[in-house]
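Bumping with the actual sequence this time:
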Amino acid sequence: MNHFSGIQIRESLLALTTTPARPHKKRRNQSAHYHARIQKKWTKRFGVRSIPGAYAMKDPWTGAQIIVAHPAVMAKIRSMVPRC
């Protein structure tokens, strides 16, 4: 496990962000309700993409703040953190 400024960082293959494969563009004359309804239909038809990501949460046992990151994101974090 790694630490970054006192926050524990863990790796997980499940740390993914999903986005629609084909996002619907909300135009000026469309209501938010219409846009959400059409986006839901497009997501059902075209699916979603999974992008490596990271998220923060509290450890359920200790209550400490932790960051869960995908291994691809973890490699970027390691390259940004200077070695002592």
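The tokens above came from a reply further down the thread. The longest strand covers residues 7-11.
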